[in-house]
Each structure stands twice: as structure tokens, then as C-alpha cells.
Design brief:
Largest sheet: 7 strands, mixed
Number of domains: 1
Order of helices and strands: EHEEHHEHHHHHEEHHEHHH
Radius of gyration: 17 Å
Protein name: DUF429 domain-containing protein
Distance between the termini: 32 Å
Mean pLDDT: 93
Pfam families: DUF429
Number of strands: 7
Low-confidence stretches: 266-271
Strand content: 5-15%
Helix content: 40-55%
Length: 271
């Protein structure tokens, strides 16, 4: 089984901030073959990082791809059927600022999806820290992929054996479920690097097989983007192993989206 994890970004230097992890599931391990920022994987100059990422996803073939990005918005900003709503997204929201404005209720509070509440995700899709990321992902990556019928998107569409299947993940949520530190692992000081090391050790115990050169790359990335791509990849692998893509979900999930994460039997408390 081909697995990919994507840590998405809408930063000005997105080609350096977007990290991808590629691997293959063999028996009880996920073997990571590639861990790199988008800029080193592109086959042409990166005038538009999102377009290049969409092209990589579309050409991935049969695979499970976990993405750290929001696939939908809370009701009433989202609507059923999701496929039709997504195709109309660019006309519904002129830009990220309009998305940000419409992401609040009458009292000025940020709207959360059901999955954000269930998974205890740190941010709503239109939170000040990630609303540009949400807009860029929906507008410039997911929209063209769905319009071209190049992917299947969980849970809105049935999985297809002839193309990539995308699922939404949240590294912070996954780490908490793994019983690993889900805070204070991003930064350049010794303690943050040690935290990244502890997380990698924990992921290895879960079945991640990572060459030492790629482990060093994840440890040496102070932004934690490389590590988040690995967390996304192992999350996808474990979700598939537990057959969670076939589990019944509440009706809201098919309008707003769903954050997938594995359920471990004996997690320890996250630090």
C-alpha cells in the first residue's frame, strides 16, 4: 500500500513549508522512502506551490494520502452535497478574508465543525492562525483535484482503487491519541529538538520505519513541518489498518468533513 503524508502551508515561502512523506506499508511497518519539502520534489520552478502540490497528488496513483488541512467548513458555511459545494467554493468566497468573516457566528465566536469538537482539534477552520491555509487548500488544491475527478475524498466519496484517496488529519490530535507530546515540539532550542526526538521514538514503536538520514531531517527541522508530514503518514496507515474509513459517521461529517485518527488501546498521557 502506498502512503503519503502532507503538512500543508499557505505561507509566503510555502514551497519550503509544505513537506511530504512517501512510504510503503509492508506487513506491520510503514517504510518511509522520501521526506522532503515541496521545493525539492517539484519538476519545474515553483511559481504556484499549491498547483504543483495538486499535480503531485493527482499523479500519485492508487494511494492513501493524509493531509493536514481542513476539507470542509462548519454549517452554515458549508452545504450538502459537499461535491457541489466544493466546486462552487471560489464563487462563494471571493478570498480568504471573506472566509474569515463568515467563519464567525452572530456573537463573533469562531464556528467549529462537529469533528473539531469530537477530535478536540486545536483550531477551527477559520481561526486566525489557519484561515489562509484553509482557503488555499480548498481553493487551489482540493477544488481543482475534485473538478478533474483526479482523487477520491473521504468521507464524501467512495474510495477508488484507480486513484489517490485523500483524508483529513490533524497531527496534534494524532499525537494525543498516540500518547505522545503534542505541544512544544516546534522550535530550535534543545528542549524542542529533544521533544521531536521523543515523538520519533514513539512513532517508531508504532511501526514507523525511518532511515537515519530522514530521521535527522525531521529532527533538524525547527518548524516541525517534516515531523508533521511523518505523523500524517503514519496516521493514514493506522487508520487504514483499523479499517476506520469504512466506519459509520454522523451526518455532519458528510457536509463538514471529518478528522481521521487511529484509536490506540492503551495511550499514555500526552505531555
Amino acid at each position: 500500500m502506498r502512503i503519503m503524508g502532507i503538512d500543508f502551508s499557505a505561507a509566503r515561502d510555502a514551497s519550503r513549508k509544505i513537506w511530504l512523506a512517501f512510504g510503503n506499508a509492508v506487513s506491520d511497518q510503514l517504510h518511509i522512502e522520501t521526506l522532503a519539502p515541496l521545493e525539492t520534489l517539484a519538476d519545474r520552478p515553483l511559481a504556484n506551490a499549491s498547483a504543483v502540490l495538486a499535480r503531485i497528488i493527482a499523479s500519485s496513483g492508487p494511494s492513501i494520502i493524509a493531509c493536514d488541512a481542513c476539507f470542509g467548513l462548519p454549517v452554515p458555511s458549508s452545504a450538502a452535497p459537499w461535491h457541489t459545494w466544493l466546486l462552487s467554493y471560489p464563487s462563494r468566497f471571493a478570498d480568504a478574508e471573506q472566509l474569515r468573516q463568515e467563519g464567525r457566528d452572530a456573537h463573533g465566536r469562531e464556528r467549529k465543525r462537529l469533528t473539531d469538537r469530537v477530535a478536540r482539534a486545536p483550531f477551527a477552520p477559520t481561526n486566525l492562525r489557519i484561515y489562509r491555509q484553509t482557503d488555499s487548500w480548498l481553493r487551489s488544491v482540493l477544488h481543482p483535484l475534485v473538478a478533474a475527478d483526479a482523487v477520491a475524498v473521504a468521507p464524501f466519496e467512495r474510495l477508488r482503487e484507480d486513484r489517490p484517496c485523500l483524508l483529513e488529519v490533524c497531527p496534534s490530535v494524532s499525537l494525543r491519541e498516540f500518547g505522545l507530546p503534542n505541544l512544544r515540539y516546534k522550535g530550535s532550542d534543545h528542549l524542542r529538538r529533544q521533544c521531536r526526538c521523543d515523538i520519533l521514538t514513539g512513532l517508531t514503536r508504532l511501526g514507523l520505519d525511518l532511515p537515519s538520514s530522514l530521521a535527522s531531517r525531521a529532527l533538524d527541522d525547527p518548524g516541525g513541518d517534516a515531523l508533521d508530514a511523518l505523523i500524517a503518514a503514519i496516521t493514514a496507515w493506522l487508520v487504514v489498518r483499523q479499517d476506520l474509513l469504512a466506519c459509520p459517521l454522523p451526518a455532519e461529517a458528510f457536509i463538514e468533513g471529518w478528522i481521521y485518527y487511529p484509536i490506540l488501546s492503551s495511550p499514555t498521557n500526552a505531555r
